[in-house]
Amino acid sequence: MQRAELADFLRRRREAIRPAEVGIAGGPRRRTAGLRREEVAMLAGMSVDYVVRLEQGRSSQPSTQLLGALARALRLTDDERAHLFHMAGHRPPPAEGLARLARAGLVRMLDLLGDTPALVLSDLGEALAQNRAAVVLMGDYTGLTGDRRYHVYRWFTDPDTRAGHPPEEQPHQARRLVADLRAAAGRRSGDPVVAGLVDRLRAASAEFDRLWAEHEVAVRRSDRKTLVHPRVGRVVLDCETLVTPDQRQQLLVLTPADAEARERLDLLRVLGVEEFPTDATPATAATGATDETDTGAR
User: Fold this and answer.
1) Each residue of 7-27: pLDDT tens digit?
2) Of all helices (H) and strands (E), which one includes residue 256?
3) Hey, is 52 helix, strand or coil?
4) Do 160 and 217 fall into the same domain?
5) What is the CA radius of gyration of the chain?
6) d(CA 252, CA 242)
7) Do residues 110 and 235 both lie within one domain?
């Protein structure tokens, strides 16, 4: 672990980011043009004290999860992220692990979307990053582990997941999820990650097994869906999906489909984050990472 180099790199990257780039108001009283340490801590989901120790070169070795959260918070490019891992004494994530780190450009787009709910998803439906509007609307999914991090797995194995969608839309959503996974499996033929997920789903859900056998294929691009929120009720949303050239990551943008949906989203922004007892636990930061070395991370 190259503590001095790591400290200097983190400090310089923090100072190079303008608050507006990450959705933070600058204000007239800021003494620095870049981010404050507490703002980096908030964005990365870790304690301010740990950020201070990292920048002073006296921290313990950060975990790969924590490094991924820092890379997102500091909007690092792929090359900068690999450099960060090397300085911290870790190998950069392999291809599959790298695909699970939201691209810097997509994270910046989350910031620019502001009050419009948006998520960065892997091609298997894992939430890699969310803006605050998305967390307020549906909870924070970025901290889930194992197969539960895949929306398609939760849909077919956890009845509570479907509670967020009206019954009349559930068959359509189920088919779209399976068809999208079938398309990903075709692009990633022979990939054990995809094959293993499909095998576990077929074993766990008779409904998934039946739909998978029908061999429908459809890449997710646009759709209209209704989310049932515990505080404001039904919110009808138009969903647009932008896909990266390698098709490994997607930017999902959710816009209100009518005036009523817009009013309910506005109300949610006022109410703030609601407790979500089923799929995920909302957090103040979209990254969902924790400071494993500091019990006061939150």
Assistant:
1) 999 998 888 888 877 767 666
2) strand 249-256
3) helix
4) yes
5) 20
6) 7
7) yes
